[in-house]
Structure formats: C-alpha cells, structure tokens
Design a protein that fits this description.
The complex is a heterodimer of chains A (269) and B (380). Chain A is globular and about 75 Å long. In chain A, the strands form three sheets. In chain A, strands 11-10-9-12-8-1-6-7-13 form a nine-stranded mixed sheet, sandwiched between helices. A two-stranded antiparallel ribbon of chain A has the order 2-5. Chain A has a two-stranded antiparallel sheet with strand order 3-4. Chain A has 269 residues and is α/β, with parallel strands linked by helices. Chain A is built from eight helices and 13 strands. Chain A folds into two domains: 222 residues, Rossmann fold, CATH 3.40.50.620; 31 residues. In chain B, the strands form three sheets. Chain B has a four-stranded mixed sheet with strand order 1-4-5-8. In chain B, helix 1 packs parallel to helix 4 and helix 5 runs antiparallel to helix 6. The radius of gyration of chain B is 21 Å and the shape is globular. The model of chain B has no long low-confidence stretch (mean pLDDT 96). The chains are: A alpha/beta (269), B alpha+beta (380). At the A-B interface, helix 2 and helix 5 of A face helix 1 of B.
Chain lengths: 269, 380
C-alpha cells in the first residue's frame, strides 16, 4: 500500500559545537551563531529516515517541508539527497524564533495546500529550543490524531503499527491514517549519509518555494507571533565544582559520613 | 575567480565529513595499531560513490570533477589518512590508468566494477630497485602464444593484498627506453601472479602496502592497455592526476593536525592560562593555518585546471610538492604544541606526523616534483 508521507524538518544551530565556543546574546535572548554550522535537527533526520524506510517497504511518496530562513534550503537539499521525492521551502522572512503554534499553523496551511496525505512525521523536538510542541499543535490544526515519541513505524492491517517510547518502556499502537507522528531516535532510524552522486543530483532537482502569502495564513499575525509564549531569559548555567573530603576514624565511619553527605547534597538538588 | 566551494561541493564535503566522523574516527587508532585495512567497509565506500569519484556514469562512476575529488580525499584524510590514501590510489592510479588509456571493452570489463566499488584496484610501477627512476624497471613482458609472459616484481603497492584488478608496467622492448614500457591488466588469481610481503610501515599503517611477484605469469594480449610501448607515457599522465589526490590527502592530514593543535591549545592550561593565549603558540597556529590555506589554493587550482581539460603537469606537481611539505611541517608543529602529549597515542598528533611523511615520498618524491616543475619551467 503506497503511503503519502510528509516530513517536516527544522534547521538549527549545530548542537555539536564545543561548549567553549557556545555564546548567547542575553539581550536578544538568542544563541550567537559564531563559527557554528547550521544543520538539520537530528530528530527531524530520524523522522526522515523512518519515512524513507517506510517508503522502501510500502512505496509512496515523501515530501519534505521546512519553514525557515533562506539557509533552510541546505536542509531541504540534504533531504532530497537522502532521497526524499520533493521539497517545499516556506520562507520565514522575519522572526528568528517563531513559536510552535505559529510554526504549526504555517505547516498546516502548507499541508492543506498540498492536498491529501496519509502521515506527517516530525522530530520529537528540536535540538535548539527543545519545546517539543509542534507535532501536537500541527495535529490539532489538521484535525487528525497524533502519536508522540514513536521509534518504529510499520504498515498494519488497516493503518500503521507504531511503537512508541514511554517513561517505563514502550507501547504498541495501531493507528488509522491520516495522522501526525513525532519520531524519536532509535538504533533503527540512524539517518543515512547521502551518496555523493545524490548530493550532486539534489542541486538539480526543483525545490518549491512558498511565502506566507502563498499559503493564505494571516501573515501579519504569524510574523508577529509569540502570543502565548515568551523567552524570559537565556543564559549559560554556571557550573561550580567543589571537592570535599570526608573524615572519620574508621573506614565504616567515613563510609557512613560519605553516604550521609550524598543524601544531603542530592536532597538539596 | 572564486576561491570557495560551491553549495553542491560544500554539501558533498559535509556528507563525507559525517561519514568519516561516524564510520572511521572511532577505529582510527585500532586500525593503525593492527595495520588493518577495513575492507569490510568497502560496500559503504561504494554506496557513497567513493570508488569511482572521477569517472562518468557509463563506467559506473559518480561523475564528479577533481575539485570534488580533492574535497572528498581531504575530508577522509582529515580523519584517517590511510583510508584516504587507499581510496585515492584506487581512483587515480589503477582505475585512472584504465580510464585514460584502456579500450572500451577493457573499460567495461575492468573499470566498471572498480568504479562501482565491487572490489579494489592496485597499480604497479615501483620496483625494489626502481623508484624515482621509474623507467629503469626490470619487470619484463615477453611475447608468447598470442599473449605476454611477465617476470619480475613490484613493491610498495597500495591495495595489493585486496585488489582483484591490478594494472602493472613492464618492459616490452629493452632497447626503446621509456618507449619500450607497456601496461597490462592482471586479474587476481592469474597463474604466476602473487602478492608477497606486506610492509610494516611508519605511518599510513591501515593502508595495505605489499609487493607483487610475476613468475612466468601469462597475460592474454587483450589485457595490454593501449599500444605496446605506450605504458610509460600513460603512467606519466596517470600521475598528473594522481598528484592532485596526494596534494588533497596532504591537506587532509594538515587540517586534521591543525584542528587537533587548536583544540589542545585552547584546553591546555599552563602558567594559569590556556597555552593558546601565549604568542609562541599563536604564531605557530597562524603559520600553520596560512600555509594550509596556500596549499589548498594550489591544490584547488590544479584541480580546477584539470577539470577544464588542461595539462596540469606543472600545477599538480607544485600542489603535491607544497601541500605534502606543509603537511609534514604542520603535523610536526602540532606534535610540538601538544608537548609530551603529542608524543603518545592518546592524542591524534603523533599519528598525523607519522602519516604525513608518506606524502613527500609517495607518487614522486619532493625532489622528483622539483625536477618535473623545473623541466616544465625551462622547456620553453
């Protein structure tokens, strides 16, 4: 059964940069890009990898959508190189960090414009702000069900068989389509590295570009954004290292004191 | 003039970097110590298109140019120079010779599977007593029964143990000098053809290097590449392209060593501050980075001219000469910046230093590069 899959991806500041190179602009409440690369959010790549594996088994089509600045084209080209079928770039021409609801509204409008779909896959959260709300809000906007923290997707009898991670283990969910899934990482969805030839070909493939006006959303409202959500403060936590020695006459006494200090210290955390 | 990689090339660079970090980096030291070439990764190299980078689609290649090729070799070399060397030798030398000079039938039979990465290729020019003076080789090929019988040996051959196809040069007319040397395709398992001693090397230890022996080895006439007596001229053309890949390999080593030095200089505290704050270290880093950039520009220039179809004998020799010597200097300074930690295997500096030295020797020593450059300069 061919599946029509939409994967939403986000480009972020490379979270792998060494911590000594990471700076924040406290006034703007933003990370400073500095020499860091922009990369596709890892959970989004896990989502794309999951989609590619599903398509390899079931057939169908994968359309990748991203809402972001001009540089987002790199993330979409990479998705094409990984063998997504089509890519759509919705240009974010203003806000540095649109809130998840604005993003969900924009993505939903783009998906409606595309027409029918079977499943939308997103990363469980982004590696920069880590809010993790977009998938749920997008499902709400589209009026379909959402399943979060999925690490395996298979074709089931009349829909999809999903395995999702929970705090205490995992759940198996039978879901009917259409639906929205947020994907988490797992050993089976490590993103593939595109072939050099496919990287080259990705630059010769068409890439659809839409503006907010093309989508019929209230562009002014989306650009203003942040109605329910505000970043109050942004700072790098200061780590303090203290070394403490416990004393005592006997080994038992020292162990006892050591255990007590651990309880005190962890209790105050 | 544009001195930056285009977006497409940057994405290829990024893709290879991700691959090298994920698949090579965790094993670098282990492969170095055990002298293990990871033949088990061949399907992955092939899938990425690394085994036929510069050959067109119709021969199973990825159809890229020399700029992309140099970028890929540099990125591999930045993490594991041995792997970069093996892949460069496979592409530039064995497959490169077939691409430049073989017949269509030979290309389809031998280049296609090599470029697709079904197996590795090796190239045999050097002999125990003929290195820089390549034309003084002793391996002979004598006509017999509609074919050729080869006798002699080749040494320091990259990929020798694993290669299913080897291109080797032999004398077919001792009286004709360099015009009496011909190139042959030898399949693994051919009677009288064997792989001899595997070398225990200073650096590049994960790259397979061994000797080849021909003992009354019969090769059909179909396996002669091009015309009889053209082998040496073909080999010189092969080396024009090959030198670009060794220049790129040198860049990778220098880049890896430089990055290790910067990282260490920022982390290492002496006299209550990071050593990167001392001018003695800063000047070293500045010189390393500057020389590295100069070497990269020379390499890219040779690659760009090669992509335009120009003869790049001088340019590729200049790139190889300069980049390889920069690699040795930068790697040595990286060891120096690391101090005692540069001398032990817990840090990557010592390995880059050991690996770098191959670059001023292999595929033409620095002295031979200077000879080639001078000959080109004074020819007019």
């Amino acid at each position: 059964m061919p599946v029509n899959i939409i994967v939403c991806v986000k480009q972020i500041l490379d979270p792998e940069i060494p911590s000594r190179d990471f700076r924040v602009d406290a006034e703007q409440r933003e990370a400073v890009r500095g020499a860091a690369n922009l990369v596709t959010n890892i959970f989004c790549e896990n989502a794309l990898e999951t989609a590619l594996q599903l398509k390899e088994k079931s057939g169908g089509k994968i359309t990748v959508i991203s809402y972001g600045a001009d540089s987002t084209e790199d993330a979409l080209r990479k998705a094409l190189a990984m063998k997504a079928d089509a890519a759509i770039h919705i240009l974010n021409d203003g806000q540095a960090h649109p809130d998840p609801l604005s993003v969900a509204q924009v993505l939903a409008a783009a998906i409606r414009k595309l027409g029918e779909f079977d499943v939308v896959m997103l990363g469980r959260e982004s590696g920069d702000w880590g809010v993790g709300q977009t998938a749920g809000l997008l499902a709400e906007e589209l009026g379909v069900a959402a399943v979060a923290f999925v690490d395996k997707v298979e074709i089931g009898a009349d829909g999809l068989q999903l395995k999702r991670q929970t705090d205490v283990g995992y759940e198996r969910v039978a879901a009917t389509m259409p639906l929205v899934i947020s994907i988490t990482n797992d050993e089976h969805n490590v993103p593939r590295i595109p072939k050099t030839r496919d990287v080259m070909m990705s630059f010769r493939q068409p890439l659809t570009k839409w503006t907010l006006e093309d989508l019929g959303v209230n562009a002014a409202e989306v650009r203003a954004g942040n109605h329910y959500y505000a970043v109050v403060d942004l700072f790098i936590p200061v780590q303090e290292l203290n070394c403490e020695f416990v004393d005592g006459d006997t080994l038992e006494a020292r162990v006892e004191k050591f255990a007590q200090r651990i309880i005190e210290v962890t209790g105050s955390m | 003039m544009n001195f930056e990689l285009n977006e497409e090339q940057q994405q290829i660079k990024q893709s290879i970097r991700e691959f090298a970090e994920a698949e090579l980096r965790p094993h670098v030291l282990e492969w170095d110590e055990s002298q293990h070439f990871p033949i088990e990764l061949l399907p992955k190299f092939a899938q990425l298109g690394l085994m036929g980078i510069i050959f067109p689609d119709e021969y199973g290649g990825a159809g890229m140019g020399y700029i992309e090729y140099a970028t890929i070799i540099e990125e591999l070399g930045r993490v594991d120079p041995s792997i970069a060397l093996s892949i460069a030798a496979h592409n530039s030398l064995c497959s490169g010779h077939l691409y430049i000079a073989a017949s269509e039938a030979q290309k389809h039979k031998y280049l296609l599977p090599l470029a697709k990465g079904e197996y590795l290729g090796a190239w045999g020019l050097t002999e125990p007593s003929s290195g820089s003076d390549a034309s003084s080789m002793r391996t002979v090929a004598v006509r017999k029964n509609g074919g050729w019988v080869l006798n002699g040996s080749k040494n320091f051959i990259t990929n020798a143990t694993f290669a299913a196809t080897t291109v080797a040069l032999a004398i077919t007319d001792r009286t004709a000098g360099t015009h009496g040397i011909s190139a042959f395709i030898i399949e693994r398992g051919t009677q009288g053809f064997s792989v001899a001693k595997k070398e225990n090397k200073l650096g590049m230890r994960a790259s397979d290097t061994a000797a080849l022996v021909f003992d009354d080895c019969y090769i059909p006439d179909d396996n002669l590449i091009g015309q009889e007596g053209q082998g040496f001229i073909q080999a010189m053309k092969v080396l024009d392209g090959g030198r670009i890949s060794i220049a790129a390999l040198s860049l990778g080593i220098a880049q890896g060593a430089y990055e290790a030095a910067v990282k260490y200089a920022k982390e290492r505290h002496q006299f209550s501050k990071p050593i990167a704050e001392f001018q003695a270290i800063q000047f070293k880093l500045a010189d390393m980075a500057t020389e590295l950039e100069a070497a990269r520009l020379l390499t890219w220039r040779a690659a760009a001219l090669k992509d335009q179809g120009k003869i790049v004998t001088k340019e590729s020799s200049m790139a190889k000469l300069y980049a390889s010597e920069v690699a040795v200097r930068v790697a040595e300074e990286s060891v120096q910046i690391h101090g005692g930690y540069g001398y032990i295997k817990d840090y990557p500096a010592e390995k880059f230093w050991r690996d770098s030295k191959l670059c001023t020797i292999g595929e033409g020593t620095s002295e031979i590069q200077r000879t080639v450059i001078a000959r080109q300069l004074l020819r007019a």
